[in-house]
Structure formats: C-alpha cells, structure tokens
Amino acid sequence: EYNGYDWQSMPKVTAYSLRGVWGSSETDVFSVGDGGTIIHYDGNQWTEMERGNFSSLKGIWGLSGTKVYATGLQGTIVSYDGTTWSETESGVAFPLMGIWGASITDIYVVGENGTILRRSTGEVRGKITTSITGGNSIVVGAAVTIQETGQQTTTDTNGVYHFDNVPIGSYTVIVSSEYFKEMTIQDVRVPGGEVAIPDIDLSELKTGLYSQGDLDNAVLKERIKYDPNADGVISVENIIYFLKWMAEIQ
Fold first, then answer.
1. Distance (Å, rounded) from C-alpha 152 to C-alpha 61?
2. Does 209 have pLDDT greater than 90?
3. How far is the C-alpha of 73 from the C-alpha of 94, rounded, in Å?
4. Better-predicted residue by pLDDT, 195 or 17
5. CA–CA dist 227, 239 (Å, integer)
6. What span, in angstroms and rounded, lies between the C-alpha atoms of 55 and 70?
7. Most buried of 2, 76, 125, 153, CB within 10 angstroms?
8. Which of 24, 23, 27, 26 has its CA nearest to residue 42?
9. Is 61's pLDDT higher than 90?
C-alpha cells in the first residue's frame, strides 16, 4: 500500500502469487492470481472472495465495483456483477494475460500467440414481480428466453434474471411461469451496452388450465409465503391479499 510517501506491507490473505490489481476506489480494490485466486480490499482488510473453479488469473479491469472482468489461462474470462463471479466463453484456449476497456462493449483482451479479442456484445437483465397478491412480490423460477438467440435462464431468489454475451441488436424477451400467462416484451435493444429492462409485472394468471390439485398446490405455495413458519400467524394485511389472490384464480 502506498500512502503518498512510501510503500507499506499489508497482511497476506493467500499463499498464491498475485498477478493483477484493479480498483474502483480506495475502498473497493480487487486482485487476482494463481489458482483462480480473487481477493478484495474494502478499505480495512483484504478477504478472499467466493468463486468458481477458475484457472489461474493474470489480468483484471473493471468499469465499476459491480462490473469487473478478469482473464487467465486456458482462455479464461470471468466477470463480477457485484454479487457473483461467473465464467464467460472466450472462444480461445490460449492464456489471456491482460484486459482493458472503454465501455461495456468496448473491451479488449490480449494473450499468447498474438491473441487479441474485442467484446462486441452487451447484457440484458431485469426483475420479474407480480402484483396479483396485493403487493409487489418477486417471482422465483420464472423462465426467461431471448427469442432470437435462444438464450434461456430462470429468475433467481431475488426475482432477477441476467443474460451475458448478447450480440448487439434488437430482441424479443419472453417470460413464462407455472401459474402466470406468458408475457412478451418486444424491441429490447442492445445497442452497445447493458440494457436494464424495467421490472416486469406478471399481472395475469392462467385460467381454465388447472385441476383442483393444481389449485390446491398454488394456494399452498402462496400460504407458505405468508406463513413461512407454518404456525398459523398471518397478518390481517396478508390475509386480505391472500383472499384476493384466491378469488382471482377460481
């Protein structure tokens, strides 16, 4: 660490050799190294970050603390979205030693054997919710598809979905869930950067498609949401929402 006058040694948090460092601020610094090591400095201390089984990493760069990229052996490129590190396909097997960019879709990676890669894709992400239960409940496990590319994913425990490496263009996004009518969002543009689609509200339930068993299961799922401890303690507000929801699916 350099304090403006001299360099000071900081406590070690890994035995692996570190190969690259980048930070968005003095309280948000990342470093990568051998064995796929990734460590983070929050202004007080360095800690190892949870990650996948990555190859040794050689270079790191980012746009912000929630948009960080690292490169490494065997064509490895990994990205961090503020929560999780995930690997993306580079299309090469050569070691990738350095990375730099000017924007989300203007990123350059260099490596052995004269390898130069340029990113020409963007990202699509959003959140799926429903107001049917009277609030703004997240929808977990909804299927989301980009029609033109065939890319598919499901919403996570926060109702969020994310597509990486989407070629620049205009797309149709289709959202479907077990109990909701399918929704289509057209003309989703990826012009050269990340597209944050406004939160999508699945406001219509499927009708006439359920047996009594299906309805019972749906009711059970909703009741568990409002009575997670199964102790019969449900607020008056949630009872009203629950009864309203039941009336709409009958």
1. 28
2. no
3. 7
4. 17
5. 10
6. 11
7. 76
8. 27
9. yes
How would DSSP label each residue in 4-59? SS-B-------SSPEEEEEEEETTEEEEEEGGG-EEEE-SS-EEEPP--SPPPEEE
The type of residue at 12 is K
Provide mean pLDDT across the span 10-39: 96
Residue 211 has pLDDT above 60, yes or no: no
**pLDDT averaged over every residue in the chain:** 83
What lies within 8 Å, CB to CB, of 211 at 6+ separation is: none
Mean pLDDT to the nearest integer, 92-104: 91
- CB count within 10 Å of CB 177 equals 21
Average pLDDT over residues 202-219: 65
Smallest CA-to-CA distance from 98 within 69, 121, 66, 120 is with 69
Strands 152-154 and 143-146: antiparallel
Task: Tell me the residue type at 26.
Answer: E
